[in-house]
Amino acid sequence: MATQDGLKLTVSGGFPGEKRTQRLTYDFGLQGGLTADTFEMGELGEKMCITNAYVMVETAGAGATAVVNIGYDASGTPAESADVDAWVNNAAGAVASLTDDTIIRQAAGEDIVLNGGTKVLMTIATAALTAGRWHLYLEGYAVA
After folding, report:
1. Which of 20-24, 38-42, 128-132 has the lowest mean pLDDT?
2. So where are the chain's domains?
3. pLDDT (0 to 100) of residue 74
4. Which of 18, 71, 97, 143 is 20 to 30 A away from residue 50, measured at CA?
């Protein structure tokens, strides 16, 4: 079961081995986007093997030289090593790359196992955002 609190999603309730796709969203119109802001896009409610991950830009990002990173923290139990740019790093997350209908895929965020409690984070660096809406899709399997 997934629960939604604003745009923050908690992913849980799958059967071991069950294939799942989860979508986590950032929306400037609802969340804003100042330099050095960190947003919790969601939290894994259970252990998950992520086999595919990508970001789909719905509305282009804007904001001078803003850079976006999307990854995960070390809050799972037991803690994973944090990778704050597993799904979007500085090069892919430069505002000039965040154009309408673009897909961003990075291998670092695929074929990994994350524990329940792991938070998915998005951080803004170098300049504030002034627009943008995108979705992180995590595909994989619930792990017992």
Report:
1. 20-24
2. 2-142
3. 82
4. 97
